[in-house]
Amino acid sequence: MVSVAEVESARADVFxxxxxxxxxxxxxxxxxxxxxxxELKKTMPGLPTLSLDxxxxxxxxxxxxxxxxxxxxxxxxxxxxxxxxxxxxKPVARVAHALAKRHGVDDLTPWPVNAxxxxxxxxxxxxxxxxxxxxxxxxxxxxxxxxxxxxxxxKVLAPALxxxxxxxxxxxxxxxxxxxxxxxxxxxxxxxxxxxxMTLLARNWSMLYWVQAVAAAGHxxxxxxxxxxxxxxxxxxxxxxxxxxxxxxxxxxTLPSPSGVLLAVTDPEIDKHGGVLLAWRDxxxxxxxxxxxxxxxxxRLQNPNVNKSMWSVVRLDRETRxxxxxxxxxxxxxxxxxIRLLAAAPPAPGTRHTQLHDGPSRPRSAVxxxxxxxxxxxxxxxxxxxxxxxxxxWRVRGHYxxxxxxxxxxHKTIWISEHYSERGCDGELVERPVVTKxxxx
Length: 441
Fold this sequence. Notes:
The structure is a single chain. By secondary structure, the chain is an alpha+beta fold. The strands form three sheets. Strands 3, 4, 5, 6, 7, 8, 9, 10, 13 and 14 form a ten-stranded mixed sheet that branches. 35% of the residues lie in helices and 21% in strands. A hairpin with a 5-residue loop joins strand 7 (312-317) and strand 8. It has helices at 4-20, 32-43, 82-87, 92-103, 111-117, 139-172, 180-187, 196-205, 209-222, 235-243, 294-302, 330-344; strands at 55-61, 76-81, 229-233, 259-265, 275-282, 286-293, 312-317, 323-326, 368-373, 393-396, 399-405, 410-416, 419-423, 429-439. The chain is elongated, with a radius of gyration of 28 Å.
């Protein structure tokens, strides 16, 4: 699979081709630049004298290597104009972004177009991620942070996903159906109507691989929020999941649970990435599996840019067995090993194999499974009106439930993962998630 940088580079070449228009290279100012300038003026009403010669940004030239004569003199400054920006293949929305910043005026570029054209500039709130969170007890906090991050990313990526959809519609209709966002985005590149240039742009926007990968990963966490079964592995168990060389059968789409997350933490001296995080979702006809290395996960949560440290996403069609992958398919092997370890584990927490009276002792399982839960914060100075209810705690097994969604006006069957319910200090009902922990016996 090609990298994000390679895809972005290829798309940049296409956009430069559209904007520079090879059929008008002899002209100093190609005619379609006037269309782009008119579009730019609409987004920059605070600059009434805007022209192709208006300065967009300045670049200071270093005085190094100019000899003694350059000392003490002001640095040389190169000015880049609107004409230079168009010649470099920059769209109207990107030039408008720089002009607004330089002159302190309002940029009235429509939000969807701005978000699509300036996708690399999109940011979301960062999340805290520390080494102390790489434990079974703190794993629910990691999943909560990822869910919040996914919600924010899906919100800002909504225009790009809509443009991707409208681009496919345009191509499938042979240019007869042009969505409003597609038309506005094309005008930012000086393309005002259907034709070969709009087709070229639509073809590239229909293959926004990094957007597809980030969105697919986000849906795994957002659509199944709060219903993931949590699995944590460390030590030898993590090594068996990540680096076991034993031959395996082809994965048939079987999952440990309808939706889940695995955090496999390794010794940094053995694995420089520190382990991986896997998440999966059963979507009926297909299965989504997403993977990210722990060091990339840490950087991702602490980096506001949306398209940094991309997820590896695998979508498996249950009927055709065809796998669509955005990135590495290593997670498929790791999920298969997790399933194998779970199948070999004792049937219940604390179960041990016993010795036969008339034969050798049975080998102990490679791993054991025990349950931990996220600690419930306690207010030592808070009220304790129902102190007698504090010891009450019961385990709720995983189950399906029909949940009413007012926003869509119908019920949906959702999976409720296994958890503990207990009474808090004030009698309130508290649900504590369960983490299935795999470790060496």
